[in-house]
Amino acid sequence: MNAFPLLCMISLLVCMIPSNIGCCEDTASGGSLRLDTIAEIDCKQPVGLVAISESGKTVCAATFSLNGEPVYSPAKFNTELMVAQSQHKFAAKVELRFPGHRIDHLSLSNDGQCLAHSISGRTARLVALGEHGHGSFFSSGSDVVLCAISPTTHTLAYIEEEESEDSHSLIRTLHLTRSDATSGRSEKIDMNHATRMIAWSRDEGVMAVVTGRYKVELWKGSPARVSTVIERRSEDEGLDYEITGIAFSPDGTLLCCSGQAGFTIWKLPEARLVADFKDTTVFISEIAFSADSSKLVACEHVVSGELLQPGRIPVGTSISRWSIGDGKVSRTGQTSLAFTAAKFSNSGTALCFVAPKQPSVVQLARLAE
User: Fold this and answer.
1) How many Cβ atoms sit within 10 Å of the Cβ of residue 54?
2) How far are the Cα atoms of 2, 3, 34, 137, 245 from residue 288, in angstroms, in the given order?
3) Mean pLDDT over residues 295-303, rounded?
4) CA 81, CA 208: separation in Å to the nearest integer?
5) What contacts 242, CB < 8 A, 6 or more positions away?
């Protein structure tokens, strides 16, 4: 499949946003957790996807519109990708527009200098972000079903999916391409199962690949090979809960997977289960560890207790902080917050989110005790 022209227009805007706009605090559920909103930006169209760098200084948002009008359901629509860099205010904004296409995946490197995104299920792009613009490192040209960027080395991971010659099965290939892709340094891996999510340890020594609904494969080495397989299952109820969030602790010794009915934490490298929080009325989407790996922050959603349909995530209801120790987890703080999109920085100190009452506004907040 031939690559199609992606970039229709680039513009660089300066946005002066007041800092310390407000805060949200709740002392319920065992302690206080405060969100100090330090910046916000109006993207003018409903925001569907967000991403944030580790420091919280760079935030990305994908907005959707159809013929200039807001849309709220997946379709073939105009997409704008906005990148804002901030030090207590959004001081600069880069806009990339893709008329007639949609953005399916969006992720930022830890330093906020490199962005990965896929467009209309066809192309993955690795983009270098600069102070006064951007440049594309790499664009794939096949049927891409997933893409992500590694935290440090700016490695683009993307999965191509195509029919076999007899049209009876799908052939999936995982590509790992460094930001210096022009030198030809890349790796191709045949995948046996559908892959929905990819994450790396901070040192990139381990890559976690979520396959199917509840399995996680841990890949190591070069070329990368599966070393361990983890399953997040509810043995007492016979249900397989879909994984929607995955995170490594900064020291690389813990792996957390979240989804409906809570989250599970494993000790690495032996993949030993050390903590399992279960609550069938809670759906946990985004998660992140603290810098010292002793705490976990989570985006929570209240659900009915029934299994959710794949890909259908309800509006978020709260942000919580958890203490990890001695094989147990306990909620130490929680604050009410309604959100339709949210993402933690990898250090768990910052959160970018979109509230349902302001669907076009991306807010940046710091988490405080």
Assistant:
1) 24
2) 38, 35, 16, 28, 9
3) 90
4) 27
5) 213, 214, 259, 260, 308, 310
